[in-house]
Amino acid sequence: MSRRFHRRRHLAAALILGPAALLPIRAEAETGAAKERVVTVFSNGLGQVWEHRALTPATGPRDVVLDGISKRALAESVSLAGTAGDLTVRSISLDTNLLTPDRLLRAHLGKQVGVVKVHPTTGEERIVPATVVSLAGGVVLRMDGRLVTGMPGRLAFPDDTQGMVTSPTLTASIEAGPGTDGLLLSYMTDGLDWRADYTATLAADGKAMRIEAWATVENGTGVDLDADRLRLVAGQVNRPPQPRPVAKTMRMTAGPEAAMDAAGALPLRE
Questions:
Q1: Phi/psi at 43 (nearest 5 deg)?
Q2: Partner of 236 for a Cys bridge, out of 44, 68, 90, 208, CB 3.0 to 4.6 A?
Q3: Domain ranges of the chain
Q4: Over the stretch 57-80, which tens digit does the pLDDT of each residue have?
């Protein structure tokens, strides 16, 4: 089975017309990693992740934080339950506000940052203060009493993530009953896909044929999924169509009637 990871690593093994269960998607160890994980992959870019995570037994209300969640998880599909006891879920929050250079720059619009200047001869670095004036169509900085466009050098930011996270984090407010020692987490996610390829080898006498099936699994969720069981489903999950909004400029230039006609002609799916 050839498995394609989001880091574009490949690992091959044969699958002879058999189920895909017990075929792992290898991953690196993570903090708070799942004790057990089952991944179901459909053939339309959608998948389901089921995990069993440990929970320190304790009664009363508390908040738990789970990391290692897919960066493309569908928040509306998240489900949480308890093992070996009752569990009441008060609220679930999925934070996917990931820390990226672009978001960090936008968070400092109108604020001061530093531009790293390197001496061409000595290689010594110094930080020149600058203010992010605009990000419309590019970066505009105010530094040394002038407006500078583009990136005059590496930018240095204060040691503050502005509430952004390095990986998706799920926070749940729960109340566990006596004996509850685990969490059962389930969610749907985009970014998982698979396809099948077949090879047939005819015997030398022409009386028999060996057929092999190779499954290629692609993981574009942004996280490694170390699955105890991997299920490949040929069918597709029915998803409601997402209407495409009509461009505001079209409504302004063509008028309401033309905009309505154009909206009817637009496809309902992205």
A1: -95, 20
A2: 44
A3: 2-96+166-232, 101-156, 242-270
A4: 887 889 998 988 999 999 899 999
Handedness of CA 193, 218, 98, 64 (dihedral sign): positive
Structure tokens at 106: 């936008």
CA pair distance 194, 206, nearest whole angstrom: 32
Sheet with 140-143, strands from edge to edge, namely: 146-149, 140-143, 125-134, 112-118, 154-156
Give the highest mean pLDDT range of 73-77, 240-244, 258-262. 73-77
| 2-96+166-232 and 101-156: identical CATH topology | no
Query: Residue 171's closest CA among 66, 55, 49, 51?
Result: 66
Looking at residue 237, what is its pLDDT?
Answer: 81
> Does domain 2-96+166-232 correspond to CATH entry 1.10.150?
no
d(CA 233, CA 235): 6
Q: What is the pTM of this model?
A: 0.63
Give one word for 9, left, alpha or beta, with left for phi > 0 and alpha for psi -120 to 50.
beta
CATH 2.30.30 fits 101-156, yes or no: yes
Please classify residue 63 by burial: count the beta carbons closer than 10 Å to its beta carbon, then call 0-12 exposed, 13-18 middle and 19+ buried: exposed
> Can you give the pLDDT at residue 98?
83
Q: How far are the Cα atoms of 52, 72, 100, 149, 161 from residue 153, in angstroms, in the given order? A: 46, 32, 18, 11, 21
Q: What are the phi and psi torsion angles at 49 (to 5°)? A: -115, 125
Amino acid at 208: A
Render pLDDT for 7-60 as a digit per residue (tens, 0 to 9): 333 323 323 233 333 333 333 223 357 889 999 999 889 999 999 999 888 878
**Is there a contact between 150 and 53 (Cβ–Cβ < 8 Å)?**
no
**What is the phi-psi region of residue 259: left when phi exceeds 0, alpha when psi lies from -120 to 50, beta otherwise?**
alpha
